[in-house]
Design a protein that fits this description.
The chain has 186 residues and is α/β, with parallel strands linked by helices. It has 2 domains: 116 residues, Rossmann fold; 45 residues, no CATH class. Helix content is 26%, strand content 27%. A hairpin with a 2-residue loop joins strand 7 and strand 8. The radius of gyration is 20 Å and the shape is globular. The relative contact order is 0.10.
Length: 186
């Protein structure tokens, strides 16, 4: 929507399920999303669209209610619509793998994907849960180098570590004597 007086683009606000999509929506808008079932409870659009607005990025993050039956068509849509990518949640984290072109090392080890990136029609699957969790803790000032620690209800992170290091639930943290342990307390 052009302002006729000074030819500036007005900010577009569209009310989504979890709040407004704020920013520029035009032919250059980067489309990303989340594929899961069920989906309506998620706050992901609010978080990502607010980040786009704060960073001044021309992007829109949408939710797509995709179960296993709809998954092949949804993956085709990423290419067809030239989406930049999508997050993937249950029940699709394992089922999505055969429809992708490549997997990163962590996804291969975990046999699961939570992020798809579209690079000119080549879809690569990534698993970012574990490292994202560790980076968030580090950013919060937690330093695990040289320390042992345990996670309570680690969920998918636990599965990543178990697959990454079969036969053990411990992960080496850089520094003397540092490990992540997913063993029960006690």
């Amino acid at each position: 929507m052009a302002d006729k007086r000074n030819n500036e683009i007005e900010e577009t606000k569209i009310q989504g399920v979890n709040g407004p999509i704020t920013g520029w929506l035009d032919g250059h808008t980067i489309l990303v999303g989340l594929m899961a079932y069920p989906i309506l409870h998620t706050m992901s659009p609010t978080m990502h669209n607010n980040a786009f607005a704060k960073l001044g990025l021309n992007g829109a993050y949408l939710c797509f209610e995709i179960d296993n039956e709809k998954l092949p068509g949804a993956i085709d849509a990423i290419r067809t619509l030239d989406m930049r990518g999508s997050n993937v949640s249950m029940p699709n984290k394992k089922k999505v793998i055969p429809y992708l072109d490549k997997l990163d090392k962590t996804s291969q080890m975990c046999d699961a994907v939570n992020t798809i990136v579209n690079e000119h029609g080549v879809l690569t699957g990534y698993t970012t849960d574990g490292m994202g969790w560790l980076r968030a803790l580090k950013k919060d000032g937690q330093d695990f180098a040289g320390r042992s620690w345990r996670t309570a209800n680690p969920g998918y992170f636990q599965n990543q570590e178990r697959r990454r290091r079969p036969g053990t639930w411990r992960r080496r943290i850089p520094g003397p004597g540092g490990y992540c342990s997913n063993q029960p307390f006690g």
